[in-house]
Structure formats: C-alpha cells, structure tokens
Amino acid sequence: MIAACSPPPPPAEPAPLRHKPLLSPSGVPDVQTLVDESIDRPDRVAVEARLLAPKGIRYRQLEWLLESVHRQAAGRGGFKNARRPQAVDIRVFDDAAAAASPERYIARVRSESGDPVTEIRIPFPLGEEVKAMLDARPDYRKIRPVAVADDAGGKLVVTVPFVDGQTDVYRPKLTYVRAISEWSSWTLDLFGKYPALADLTFVGEHRGAPVVSIRVTREQYATMGLGRAEESIGAYQGDFRAGLMSGQISEAAMTRKVDTRRAQTYRDLLSSLPRGQVTVSSSLR
C-alpha cells in the first residue's frame, strides 16, 4: 500500500516592505503617520500613505510638506516588480476622525508615471502673501499701496497711490495713459503671480482721492487679452526705433504717437468690462 503524499505547503507570504517613515521638512511641523503602505505586486508598485498634521498648519507649510514627502516616497527602493514606485498617493488630514474617510483630506499629492499633482483644500493666504510682497517693494516709501483680501473668496482690493517713488510725493500731473498703465501693470502682475486670485479691484489714488477704480474677475482677465495688448503696444513702439536712431522722428513725437495708441487700446479693453466695474475720473486726460 502506497502512503498518500501530503500536499506541498502554500508559498509563504512575502514579508512586508519596510521603508523609512515619511518626515516633515525643515520649517514644517512634524506629522504623524496613520497609514504608510508600500505595494509590490506584478500589476501595481505604489506607495499609499495618510498623514496627520497638526491643526492650524499653514498653506505654504502644506506645499513644502507635499513636495518633500512625495520625493521621499517616489525615491523608495527594494521592490521586486519595479525599481521605484510607479504611483504615489499621499493624503494629509488635520483630524484623526476625518482620516477614517479617505476623501476628507486637507491636502493631497499623487502621481502615476508622471509629474506630481497637488491639491490643497484650505484657503490660500492671499492677503498675507500680497502684504508681504507690497512691504518688500522698494519703489514706495511712506505713501504705500494697501491691500485688503478675502482669502476664502479669492478677492483682493489693492489701493495704489500715484506717487513718485523717489520723492514720495504725488505726481504733479497724472494722465489717463499713466494711470491706466499702472492698472495694467498691477493687474498682469497680480493675476500672474497668484493663481488663487479670482477677483481683483484696483483703486488708484492721486493726492489722497480715488481717481481710478477697476474690477476684473479672473474669467474676464483670461478673455480680455491684456497681455497681448501690451505686447502689441510694445511692438508699435519698436517700429519707431529706426526712425528715432536716424533722426527722422523725435522722442517727443514718438511718445505722443505711442501714448495715443496706448490710450485707444486701454479704452477698447475697458469697454469690454461691465460699466459698473470701471470708474475713471474725468480729470484724467
């Protein structure tokens, strides 16, 4: 009689991968790891983590944290099915109870064979950021721009004095072109610098009184073509360079022609906005 052979034992489960914990970078409060899983399967090599940050963590700190922990996770090795993780998904919470629901995160960074995509759900500190920018501007002294922001709504009101930065006094003469050129410069700069800015009101003051008030939403800014208009004005001015060098036209004559083009361009741009969003003093000519 032949003894029955016992079946071979099932293959042992691979030991879980162990990696260094994900750590906060310098300048960011320490976070607690709730979940940190390195997945190593033939169909998926990934890192998935949930981190608990302290209440009150700031927007910029979250940016730095996401960048750092993604770099740490994406650099992990020791996998059998790939050299490095093919996907990373890290979610940050500021409440342990909320962490039980994966969609209640305050910030997230993820990548899937490409550049990381970040999402931060707390309001961008628009007022704080703009104030720091204004405080650092060297072209204003005692009479300085002032900003008031609604961070949650992405709204900003910036009041700009039309002063000579060298003398710190209001310009003796303010023209329409000079005033609207300032509005154009500030509008391009602020919408370009702060993606969270959704609604901008520019108030220009001369001798302590408002002479310009222009409100533009981001949607309006995206369609009005302000940047292209400024490039067109620059190109028009460049057309006079040869004549200026050869003496066929004086600098004063060129300036008059360019200012005429600039004034018409600005009027066309502002006419595309609803009437209630544009106020320009009749004293500006």
Description:
The protein is 32% helix and 25% strand. With 285 residues, it is of the alpha+beta class. The chain has 2 domains: 89 residues, no CATH class; 155 residues, no CATH class. Strands 1-2-3-4-5 form a 5-stranded mixed sheet, covered by helices on one side. A 5-stranded mixed sheet has the order 6-7-10-11-12. β2, α1 and β3 form a beta-alpha-beta unit. The protein starts with 31 loop residues before the first strand and ends in a 5-residue tail after the last strand.
- Nearest-angstrom radius of gyration? 29 Å
Mean pLDDT: 92
Through-space gap between termini: 115 Å
Number of helices: 7
Residue share in β-strands: 25-35%
What coarse outline follows from CA principal-axis ratios? elongated
Poorly predicted ranges (pLDDT <50, ≥5 residues)? none
Number of domains: 2
Category by helix and strand content: alpha+beta
The amount of helix comes to 25-40%
Number of beta strands? 12
Question: Largest sheet, order of strands side by side?
Answer: 1-2-3-4-5
Order of helices and strands: EEHEEEHEEEEHEEHHHHE
Please summarize the sheet with the most strands. Answer: 5 strands, mixed
Quick overview of this protein structure:
The chain has helices at residues 59-74, 126-135, 176-193, 218-224, 226-238, 241-246, 251-270, and strands spanning 32-41, 44-52, 87-93, 107-112, 117-120, 146-150, 155-161, 163-164, 169-170, 199-206, 209-217, 278-280.
Features:
285 residues, alpha+beta, 2 domains, five-stranded mixed beta sheet, 7 helices, 12 strands
